[in-house]
Design a protein that fits this description.
The chain is built from 5 helices and 16 strands. The chain is an alpha+beta fold and 307 residues long.
Length: 307
């Protein structure tokens, strides 16, 4: 075999591998990526699965079975369990419409965002499915403001697959830290390197927890606060923290701790609003504490950097 033929064969094999890994839609079975939830409940966990060929209905049912099965591997789990089921679904005009049982309404905001991300990323691989719509009890699923979220596509979600750990990017972040009097926040611009597998929202939270390195400013996040998950969906960043976030340093206002996070995250192109969720004894709290809720950018609390 000549060197030219060898190069052509290698090029053809390389092209095949690239197409295989690029997430091409397929309906003839073989391997498909099924997007489970990682063990910490902070992002998606893609797994290559054998999916028998068939029509679109058959593939939807097969994938739903996988996404509601009990997983023996402790590194990930299926997003649907217990009373949460898909009562029925419809496929038409490129849209898969899923009608969930009423147990959907019991999901925490983080669990709901991960469930939708898991289903969308998995189902849009099916030929004839470009977007997924979500209904509960005959009504469309809404955001925290009561507005229907509308059909979701693969571009609706930002998440961490935990891949390509060694590759990094450089970016400039706009971060907000507390002033010494604890009543205002100031803007600091930092150029940082981060792993491309890590969502920028997580990078922002990591830097906000550290000292800003600017005289007259300090971190607005209470010491000991643990960020349990960060998920962004359709412009809303859902951030879950433990109850240590409620332990404000003496002299610091609650608005400072909130808007240092909100303004920093809203500086990202992917975020328009932030929903803060505080967990107490493992239970997500939405209305029973003075912090949990949805927030937008607040420029009134921002003051110039101290001289």
């Amino acid at each position: 075999m000549t060197d030219k033929k060898k190069r052509l064969i290698l090029s053809a094999l390389l092209l095949f591998v690239i197409l295989l890994l690029s997430g091409c839609k397929k309906e003839d079975g073989d391997k498909m990526m099924v997007y489970y939830i990682n063990e910490n409940g902070t992002g998606l966990y893609p797994v290559s699965e054998d999916v028998p060929g068939g029509d679109s209905d058959h593939m939807v049912e097969t994938l739903l079975d996988k996404l509601s099965a009990t997983i023996e591997d402790r590194d990930y789990y299926a997003p649907m369990s217990g009373d949460l089921t898909v009562d029925r679904y419809e496929i038409g005009d490129g849209r898969l419409t899923m009608y969930f049982s009423l147990a959907y309404r019991d999901l925490t905001p983080t669990a709901e965002a991960l469930l939708r991300a898991s289903l969308v990323q998995t189902m849009v691989q099916i030929d004839g499915v470009d977007e997924v719509a979500f209904y509960v009890g005959g009504d469309p699923v809404t955001d925290t403001a009561g507005i229907p979220i509308g059909p979701q596509t693969s571009d609706s979600y930002i998440y961490d697959y935990g891949q390509a750990q060694s590759q990094s990017e450089k970016t400039t972040l706009t971060l907000y830290y507390a002033t010494e009097d604890g009543n205002s926040i100031s803007e600091v611009t930092r150029t940082v390197h981060y792993s491309i597998s890590q969502p920028l929202e997580q990078v922002v939270m990591q830097y906000l927890a550290d000292s800003p390195g600017v005289e007259g400013l300090m971190s607005a996040i209470p010491e000991g606060t643990n960020v349990l998950s960060v998920v962004t969906s359709d412009g809303t960043c859902y951030i879950t923290m433990d109850s240590n976030f409620l332990n404000l340093p003496e002299g610091e206002s609650r608005e400072v701790s909130i808007y240092a996070i909100v303004n920093s995250l809203c500086a990202l192109d992917s975020v328009d609003r932030v929903q803060i969720i505080v967990e107490s004894a493992g239970t997500a709290v939405i209305t029973d504490d003075p912090v949990s809720g949805t927030y937008k950018l607040n420029e009134e609390i921002v003051v110039p950097l101290p001289e």
